[in-house]
TrEMBL record:
One of its GO terms (molecular function) is kinase activity. It is an enzyme of class 2 (transferase). InterPro entries: Cytidylate_kin, Cytidylate_kinase_dom, P-loop_NTPase. The keyword ATP-binding applies. Its main location: cytoplasm. Gene3D superfamilies: P-loop containing nucleotide triphosphate hydrolases (3.40.50.300). It comes from Nitrospina watsonii. Its EC number is 2.7.4.25. This is Cytidylate kinase. The keyword ATP-binding applies. It catalyses: CMP + ATP = CDP + ADP; dCMP + ATP = dCDP + ADP. NCBIfam families: cmk.
Length: 220
């Protein structure tokens, strides 16, 4: 069974997807980390993220491996080196949104995602899982929330590691990434027609997780 969870940055989808996967004993796959890994590698070797051919070569050659962490989250290894934490910062997130607009990169990573999904019961989160990667997923969700609330969640997550963080800048970054993800020509972020839409602005994590688990368990 494949459960697809899509939505914009800060919608809560990764946390929710991880917890739902844990409840159902499914494997959790966070596809954003694959775009982040390609952006990280391109940066390491001095490639401009906008250089379509060179970034596509990075995506073709990169070795990305996922291993489950104790809390059900996903540890990410690139060429054998653990990068779970390094990939999470907003600079890499912004670069990931640039490489994610590259159609060849998307083709390569979507194939890898389909292979991973074919291995069994999975919860996969991203931007195009229900629309492109698994259009026939058994259950699709699209999580969204007010942009200022999404920025507040990001700010709370990051401020310990970065005490100089300015809230208004985080709001701006969230709006910028929404714009990039929703307006790109290839696989723009949008809900699949048959996705269950959930606005998480006023909901806590447990409320969202329960809604999803109930909807999945009610699916024949
Ligand atoms: O979800 P996360 O913030 O880690 O994703 C980073 C970026 O990767 C997103 O802003 C988006 O541009 C891209 N992405 C994508 N398709 C996915 C997952 C992520 O385009 N399935």
């Amino acid at each position: 069974m494949i459960v697809a969870i899509d939505g914009p940055a800060g919608s809560g989808k990764s946390t929710v997807a991880r917890l739902v996967a844990g409840r159902l004993k499914f494997q959790y796959i966070e596809t954003g980390s694959m775009y982040r890994a390609v952006a990280w590698k391109a940066d390491q070797v001095g490639i401009d993220p906008k250089n379509l051919d060179q970034v596509a070569t990075v995506a073709r050659d990169i070795q990305i491996e996922f291993k489950p962490a104790g809390d059900g989250s996903q540890r990410v290894f690139v060429e054998g080196k653990e990068l779970t934490r390094d990939l999470k910062n907003e600079t890499i997130g912004r670069m990931a949104a640039v490489v994610a607009a590259n159609p060849e990169v998307r083709d390569i990573l979507v194939s890898k995602q389909r292979e991973m999904g074919a291995r069994g019961d999975v919860v996969m989160d991203g931007r195009d899982i229900g629309t492109v990667v698994f259009p026939d997923a058994h259950k699709k969700f699209y999580l969204d929330a007010d942009p200022v609330e999404r920025a507040r969640r990001r700010y709370d997550e990051m401020k310990e590691a970065d005490p100089g963080l300015v809230f208004d800048q985080v709001v701006e970054q969230v709006r910028q990434r929404d714009h990039e993800d929703k307006t790109r020509a290839t696989s723009p972020l949008k809900p699949a027609e048959d996705a269950v839409l959930i606005d998480t602005t006023a909901l806590n994590i447990e409320e969202v997780v329960s809604k999803l688990v109930q909807a999945i368990e009610a699916t024949p």
